[in-house]
Amino acid sequence: MSEPMQVLIITGMSGAGKTVAMQALEDLGYFCVDNLVPALLPKFVDMAAQTNGSLRKIAFASDLRGGELFQPLVDIVKEMRQNPEEHVTLVFLDADDEVLVRRYKETRRPHPYVDGTRLLDGIQAERRALTEVRSASDVILDTSGWKPARLKQELASRFSSITSRLPVHIISFGFKYGIPIDSDMILDVRFLPNPHYVESLRPYNGEDQPVYDYVMQWPATQEFLQRTEDLVDFLIPEFIKEGKSQLVIGIGCTGGKHRSVAVARHIAEHAHHHAEVYLTHRDRLREG
Questions:
Q1: Residue 119 and residue 110: Cα distance in Å, rounded?
Q2: Around Cβ 209, how many Cβ atoms within 10 Å?
Q3: Quick one: pLDDT at residue 211?
Q4: Nearest to 139 by CA among 45, 10, 278
Q5: In sequence order, what DSSP letters do the residues of the chain get, joined into one string?
Q6: Contact 150, 157 (CB under 8 A)
Q7: Where are the domains of the chain?
Q8: How far out from the chain centre does Cα 166 lie?
Q9: 9 contacts 60 by C-beta, under 8 angstroms
Q10: Does the structure show a pLDDT above 50 at 280?
């Protein structure tokens, strides 16, 4: 018997983080549908079940924007839970009134439950209308003191079936051809002795062992590598903690053929132990 389909229904107070939650769940591999009225939830899940397993994780956002069509949510969730092939989780996002008022004032977006009344009155009316839904929820997350990264982290810890590894892109390049525009950090290795000026090494690049050994032999190289490895080891868990989707490290020398290639190769081998590493030598095969 196959594993039951994972169905998450995200609801709760407007401004509590449903948009961030859906973005995070999409990154976790969920097929996400926003603002779906409850009556359509079982129909959509039935259609997903006909996809031969390609849709096994689905997340829906449903809230009071649906008006009267939102009211049957609790009953529909109870019905869906009768199907053993579906694992349904109702997640309620909440936050203090004061926090919700501040968030709406900062974004200047209209509150969906305010129609000519004060913002605070609308928030409190929405809270009363959601009392039954909140009581029926399997998971209640209070996002009052949270940054978006904390909500993403909480959802990942609860609903990710795999331990994610941060994608780390390491790009060697030549400064003479420009800096990679998507880099999070740039390391300049032009201070290292240059194999370009060794006639026997000039035709080769940092992927060739003689050039690699030449670059690696210097005390300055070894100290630089140690300091860089320590920095990378520190950055990877911090990027994950902040909910970053990737880390891009550019390593540059003059032409992007010798020193940067050798150093990028070494750093990639080190980072491979705790990250999903992608190594690119942008300018390695350029002439000149």
A1: 9
A2: 10
A3: 97
A4: 10
A5: -PPPEEEEEEEE-TTSSHHHHHHHHHHTT-EEEES--GGGHHHHHHHHHTSTTS--EEEEE--GGGGGGGTTHHHHHHHHTT-TTEEEEEEEEE--HHHHHHHHHHHTPPPTT-SSS-HHHHHHHHHHHTHHHHHH-SEEEE-TT--HHHHHHHHHHHH-SS----EEEEEEEEGGG---TT-SEEEE-TTSPPGGGSTTTTTS-TTSHHHHHHHHTSHHHHHHHHHHHHHHHHHHHHHHHTT-S-EEEEEEESSSSSHHHHHHHHHHHHHTTTSEEEEEETTTT---
A6: no
A7: 5-159, 167-281
A8: 9
A9: yes
A10: yes
Contact residues for 125 (Cβ-Cβ < 8 A; gap 6+): 113, 117
The confidence score (pLDDT) of residue 273 equals 81
Query: What's the longest Cα–Cα distance across the chain?
Result: 80
The pTM is what? 0.63
Structure tokens at 268: 């990639």
Superfamily holding 5-159: P-loop containing nucleotide triphosphate hydrolases (3.40.50.300)
Question: Which range among 42-46, 107-111, 190-194 shows the weakest confidence by mean pLDDT?
Answer: 107-111
Q: Is the pLDDT score of 165 beyond 50?
A: yes
Residue where the block lists tokens 């003689």:
210
Q: How far apart are CA 96 and CA 120, in angstroms?
A: 11
> Tens digits of per-residue pLDDT, 224-247?
999 999 999 998 888 877 767 789
Q: How many beta carbons lie within 10 A of that of residue 13, not counting itself?
A: 25
CA nearest 59: which of 87, 36, 35, 32?
A: 32
Do residues 93 and 24 lie in contact, with contact meaning Cβ atoms separated by under 8 Å?
no
Q: Residue 256, by phi and psi: left (phi above 0), alpha (psi -120 to 50) or beta?
A: left
257: its two tokens: 């053929």
Torsion angle (degrees, nearest 10) of CA 59, 65, 67, 69: -20
